[in-house]
Amino acid sequence: MSTHEETDRPAARPRIRSRRRRTGWITVGVLAGVAVAAGVFAGVPGKDSGGGAVAENGTLVYGVAGTQVSLDPAVAATAVTSLVNRNIFDSLVAQTGPDTFGPWLATSWTVSDDGKTYRFALRDGVTFHDGTPFTADAVRASLDHVVDPKTKSAYAASLISAYQETRIIDPHTVEVVLKQPFTPFLQALSTPSLGIQSPKALTEATYRPVGTGPFAFDSWEQGKAETLTRFDGYRWPAPGATHTGPAHLGRLVFQFINEDATRYGALTSGQVQAIGGVPPVSADDLSKRKDFTLHSDETPGLNYNVYLNQSRGPLTDPLVRRALSASVDVAKLVNSIYFGHFPVADNPISKVTAGYDASARNDLTGYGPDNAKRLLDQAGWNRTDSDGIRVKDGARLSLVWPYWPDGTREQRDVVADGIRAQAHAVGIDIQRPTVDTGTYVDKYLIGGGYDLVDVSFARPTPDVLRFAFFSANTYAKAGGNVALVNSPQLDSWVTGAAATSDPKQAAGDYSSVQHEVLKQAYIIPIYTPVSLTGYAKSVHELSFDAQTYPRFYDAWLAA
Predict the structure, then answer these.
(1) Are residues 149 and 64 part of one domain?
(2) Using CA atoms, how far apart are residues 237 and 216, in angstroms rounded to an integer?
(3) pTM of the model
């Protein structure tokens, strides 16, 4: 599983780019012409955006924390999978701004007046890495694969929970039919999780990721590295690309390096040309080095939060949840561990996420050890044992927070140690069993045998609140409701916001969710993740998408 200026005004909610008309359909896509520029094909020097000669065929090695759990974007929910797969799979549409979308594999689209049917005109002349032509069959196969229970999607299926079917009109026209209006649909389609897959590859007995992207899958050393090679037939980049034709890089290697110091050392010693997750303790050092560049982006979506399982044990009592929240000096922990590079969070979503409501912080139970003790007394946990842990009816106030080393990054284990120590000071015991991936998923995330779990999630839309707090969106059902919240009121707000075409109503609903989540202490917000990417000066034209993932299509390496 960077410091930005704060604004008190809620951002506008993502919306479809044009207003509905009284005719049966509205056009919201723009037909995209394909321009072929001379001098940018494989092996032929071109020009970079600064006018210099572009070097072709280099191998860029990118170090990243974490590892691949699955190669299938429809299955895995990890950031590493999205980072890698963005280079393999293209999407029907591209997110071009907070509330705008542009054509990609779809050249245009229309939406029915009832908001339930999207008709896409598909780009001609596109082929998958295995030679299969891109047609309407691929769109239907990809979306059907996501929602198929056999796929066991851990995230992608929740993005299109309103999906009903895909109708093929002709080889280059499809209609995607939804069960109800769902305004975040275009944003969902723009994510790597819903990238279009080869229908031929999806029928193979052994899964292999095959898309239409600028790089093709080559090999995977599980837990160590994944290698991609340039797709020389590529001619259809996303909006904003600085060239057309194949990528400049010949190979792209992702090395999985969990240990911060090792990853940073690999960059500064030249073993890799770029890394994600520059350790905050090293960020200032890197920014002063003349041979390197530090890129910093605050991440949209869910903050790094600790989720309180309100369905079992002591945390069923909101007084205990608020007491735990009051026991933690979040600001002190975050500032001491991240040296000011990660903003302290006060909301389930980050400030750069559309729909963020700054006033929701007023419902957050902030740090106050005396208040925490008073709340525990009020909840009946008014005795302590010899270890100083609160006791009620003969039971200790002990919580389980499983530790998953393979999925831990950004020194989150250090954060957890600090929270445990502060909670202990008011009489709350937190146990941290170390578990492998299988146990973490089966016993805890699916089995529910935990009291606390920590996670962040990047997605540039307030619909991420539905992912995290809609009652039916449990992990077992491809959702992120790890607090196991069961609230008809929250359900009404998140589904109402997703269905309405009225931005004011949606903004109000999303605001209400943020207030209620903090008021009920379903989470303890910790920090806003910041994409700290470091790369050598030899790396040129590296760009970043709406989710802050690096884009390697235009990138090249100086000789």
Answers:
(1) no
(2) 14
(3) 0.82
